[in-house]
């Protein structure tokens, strides 16, 4: 898991955690739990939503750490300024990844599906469970370990480094969604071509966020 602390955001949005899984086998049940948690009421519903309080991102539609962090940052800006277009900051990440503002399609393209085998979990919240401003570094590290344990228990799959993201990317689907087929490429190497395509994607998301 990778963690980032952003003190320039409100405390409840100042901590970001990213965890990547491959060979996931329980995506269908995770999706069912997400749907059920959204509609359950009372204390049972609160408990269910707390257990599923993550962004469940289809990792095959993400090309790099910069790609997901760009979307997370845009979701944080929306949440901290009370301009969320979706129900939660985690679903806002899915919308921020999409080249348009079509919420339903963003969830379809970037959210977990029954066939998902590579999954990126995003957790946005306070640096500690209590959210206390006086928390020590030990408190922060203890909470991060708790999140790692929760994610590992939640997802049936192999936890891997975020460096593996690029090897999971479905470039055919990504090019189609971001309309990248007409981008001029030097053709000198696959790495250089993909670097240019990624830069074009990030530019599209940046323009969308200020449009």
From TrEMBL:
Coiled coil: none annotated. It is found in: Nucleus. Its main location: nucleus. One of its GO terms (cellular component) is EKC/KEOPS complex. The keyword Ribosomal protein does not apply. Keywords: Nucleus, tRNA processing. GO terms for biological process: tRNA threonylcarbamoyladenosine modification. SUPFAM superfamilies: PF0523-like. Component of the EKC/KEOPS complex that is required for the formation of a threonylcarbamoyl group on adenosine at position 37 (t(6)A37) in tRNAs that read codons beginning with adenine. The complex is probably involved in the transfer of the threonylcarbamoyl moiety of threonylcarbamoyl-AMP (TC-AMP) to the N6 group of A37. CGI121 acts as an allosteric effector that regulates the t(6)A activity of the complex. The EKC/KEOPS complex also promotes both telomere uncapping and telomere elongation. The complex is required for efficient recruitment of transcriptional coactivators. Belongs to the CGI121/TPRKB family. This is EKC/KEOPS complex subunit CGI121. It comes from Naganishia liquefaciens.
